[in-house]
Amino acid sequence: MTPAQERLQKAKFEMFTEEGDQCIRELLTPLIDYIDTGIDVRPPIIEKMFLSIINKVGESHREVYDTEPPMHMKWHIVKCLQDNYYNSSLFTFSYY
User: CA of 53: how far to CAs of 5, 8, 61, 65, 87, in Å?
Assistant: First the structure.
């Protein structure tokens, strides 16, 4: 298990319920795994995956559209990029 995966397992995203946090963890895992593989990691792909996660979580947990959950998600993504020696400043998130 990579450091990013370990952090994600323990992560809290400021959702109203643990179920909401778990939903984000499950949907964020493929994005973290994608970055960890290091294959064709590009800002547009990460942006698209991030927005997809927000929308999927939002179907059952509307609080994902608040400020805190996306900020926590971005932190995990940026930290994973840094763990894998990517210049995280190249990765901006137009959603927030």
Answer: 17, 15, 12, 11, 22
Residues 25-49: pLDDT tens digits? Answer: 999 999 999 999 999 999 999 999 9
63 located within any domain: yes
The upper half-sphere exposure of residue 24, i.e. CA atoms within 13 Å in the direction of its Cβ, equals 31
Query: What's the rounded Cα separation, in Å, for the pair 54 and 27?
Result: 9
Residue 96 lies in a domain: no
Q: Is residue 1 part of a domain?
A: no
Tokens of 33: 């795994």
The candidate with the shortest Cα–Cα distance to 53, out of 70, 72, 41, is 70
Domain count, the chain: 1
**12 within some domain:** no
The whole-chain average pLDDT of the chain stands at 92
